[in-house]
Specification:
The complex is a heterodimer of chains A (about 425) and B (about 180). Chain A is built from six helices and 25 strands. Chain A is an alpha+beta fold and about 425 residues long. In chain A, strand 24 (about 415-420) and strand 25 (about 425) form a beta hairpin. Classes of the chains: A alpha+beta (about 425), B mainly alpha (about 180).
């Protein structure tokens, strides 16, 4: 009897707490559940589940196994989800953003990997999916998924970033979160067969300098890829983070071009055609070209240059008061490994080296951290990545000076979060 | 790197000893029919264009029925992409990128409409219709005349206004920042 009452009261409290969290999130713009960063030991609670009391969940059986045959995150994490930028004219040529502010380490859980589709997510029966490889080859071949999974497999952890990630050419609104500014970025362990293995199987001709990768989706999304990339580290991927690809990530088969703009890692891959020259598709002429102030546009700009961002504290979060905080974030480079990340709390006047979490892998997110004592004064938080080629992530004005403000793609400038004396963190880039 | 570019003599030796070394014998030969059905990409020189033809006049009717609701009666856009105008704006403070002002090849227009448009029924148009839609959009942009007929011979010959508007190879890294540590401006 007493247990039952306690249980009911407990449930009511849990709901109260959830609506309280909800209110906090609303106050902060609705996108930042758990956005209050509290220094150790400062959180207020009603106390019934806290020491010295025995919490309600310790006094009854928990949920049975297989309550969710495919497991789900805790209901308390319900706001850790992908979100879309507002005002997109269609829901199928659209994108959704990874909630980087809520992630830890470097792996993006499969359900949170960002999306960019040009014709929605096709529902493909893997038994009816085929990959055709043809063009300048000795043997045009058709592969089933079973065929592709018989080839020797490899697994690698690589980031994937849309080249339209971060519209920093002009300063954005103060209420942006890091999900808004940098969320077209994810990192997974990818498993599949090296593209070079399949090209050897079809007997690729030496006169082939480019290949066309084409999707089976409604958009027939297609891109030209230089053959050197195909023989370097390109993969045909059928699994991510240990399970088969998610539909929105190209199930059952996608191309994966490490370090290149995400659009080229064509999803729902159905055809590879080898040719002498680029195919000049819509996605490499009308889009994904970088317009310069001269009126000319750079074409075939594939690599994602070194970039970093602080994810904690970041826009929409709130520091509860002066005290110890760890500044944490992620850095990455399409050229290879991250060599160093520096952090500034004074808007770029003075910098300190952050710690890099090992292992540091090429073309993979690298987590950086820096212990920090906030004295309560206003601060401008920035991070700056240097990669193994010695390339240093530039400040925004240097990028604008070189490329103007209309090139749209490939923005990798240093990002600034403003920390106000009250503890609010807002976007300042 | 391709093995063949590293050590050609060594590779020749390996190939002579075991010609099938690189092969797993996985996959099956593609039939000419299978290749023909999927091989729909179109190159700037016109390779890949199918038989058929379409006029500006045919295109006007087709466009009004299948495209105007999303791209505007004259291609002015809203709610979806603008298809017309913007020539001469690329180097200004407000560049407008459209088929007419920005696309380097008319063949890409055919290729893209055939694979992706109309957005609500992609791959539903026949070759004649795609030629006609392409002709009409080129006409709306002032690139071809109102009597123009597009087919595999005429379309690749259309010279787009921004044909020479692209730069490659990639000139990056084009920004060289320094790793300053103290009292940085």
């Amino acid at each position: 009897m007493r247990d039952e009452t306690a249980g009911r009261k407990g449930a009511a409290r849990a709901i109260d707490r959830r609506s309280l969290l909800g209110k906090t999130a609303t106050l902060m713009g609705g996108t930042a559940l758990g956005g209050v960063i509290v220094p150790l030991g400062a959180r207020a609670e009603d106390g019934a589940n806290l020491p010295p009391h025995v919490p309600e969940w310790s006094r009854e059986q928990g949920a049975p196994i297989l309550a969710h045959p495919y497991g789900l995150p805790s209901p308390f994490e319900k706001d850790v989800i992908r979100r879309a930028l507002p005002n997109r004219p269609t829901a199928t040529s659209a994108s959704s953003l990874t909630p980087l502010q809520h992630l830890h380490g470097v792996i993006t859980p499969n359900g949170l990997v960002y999306e960019r589709h040009h014709g929605g997510v096709p529902a493909i029966d893997p038994a009816q999916h085929r990959l055709l490889v043809h063009g300048l080859v000795e043997r045009p071949l058709v592969f089933t998924m079973d065929d592709l999974m018989r080839f020797p497999a490899v697994s690698h952890i690589y980031f994937l970033e849309c080249s339209g990630n971060t519209k920093g050419w002009k300063t954005g609104p103060a209420n942006l979160t890091v999900q808004d500014t940098h969320g077209l970025l994810s990192c997974c362990e990818w498993t599949g067969v090296m593209l070079s293995t399949v090209l050897d199987e079809v007997g690729a001709s030496k006169s082939a300098h480019w290949l066309l990768a084409e999707s089976a989706d409604a958009a027939g999304m297609d891109r030209s890829v230089p053959i050197a990339k195909a023989y370097d580290d390109a993969m045909l991927v059928y699994a991510q983070n240990g399970e088969r690809l998610r539909p929105e990530q190209g199930y059952p088969l996608r191309l994966l071009l490490p370090g290149y703009e995400g659009n080229m890692s064509v999803k729902w891959l159905r055809r590879i055609k080898l040719g002498r020259e680029p195919f000049e598709t819509r996605e490499e002429t009308s889009k994904y070209t970088d317009l310069m102030p001269s009126g000319k546009a750079r074409q075939f700009t594939f690599l994602m240059e070194a970039k970093s961002v602080i994810t904690r504290p970041s826009g929409g979060q709130h520091l509860a008061g002066p005290g110890f905080y760890e500044i944490a974030g992620i850095a990455w480079s399409g050229h290879g490994k991250i060599r160093a990340v520096d952090v500034s709390t004074d808007g770029g006047v003075n910098w300190r080296s952050a710690q890099l979490q090992e292992p540091v892998l090429a073309k993979c997110l690298t987590r950086f951290r820096l212990p920090w004592h906030w004295d309560g004064a206003p601060a401008l938080l920035q991070s700056r990545a240097t990669d193994e080629t010695g390339y240093v992530q530039p400040p925004q004005p240097a990028l604008v000076e070189a490329r103007g403000t209309h090139s749209y793609y490939h923005y990798n400038g240093i990002h600034t979060w403003r920390l106000a004396p009250g503890g609010e963190v807002t976007n300042a880039s | 790197m391709r093995a063949s570019r590293i050590a050609a003599p060594l590779l020749a030796l390996i190939l002579a000893a075991a010609p099938a070394a690189a092969r797993f014998d996985i996959g099956r030969p593609a039939t000419p029919d299978e290749v023909a059905g999927w091989n729909t990409d179109v190159l700037p020189d016109g390779r890949g264009l199918p038989p058929g033809r379409g006029s500006v006049k045919d295109g006007a009717a087709l466009y009004a029925q299948h495209c105007a609701a999303c791209h505007g009666a004259k291609g002015e856009g809203k709610p979806m992409d603008r298809l017309v105008g913007g020539q001469g704006t690329l180097a200004t403070a407000t560049p407008v990128r459209t088929v007419g002002s920005f696309w380097p090849y008319a063949t890409t227009l055919f290729d893209y409409i055939r694979r992706a448009m109309p957005f609500d029924a992609p791959k539903s148009l026949g070759a004649d219709q795609v030629y006609a839609a392409s002709a009409y959009i080129l006409y709306l942009n002032g690139i071809v005349g109102e009597d123009a007929v597009m087919d595999a011979a005429t379309l690749p010959k259309v010279r787009m206004p921004n044909r020479d508007g692209f730069i490659s190879p990639d000139p990056r890294p084009d920004v060289h920042a320094k790793r300053c540590e103290k009292d940085c401006g």
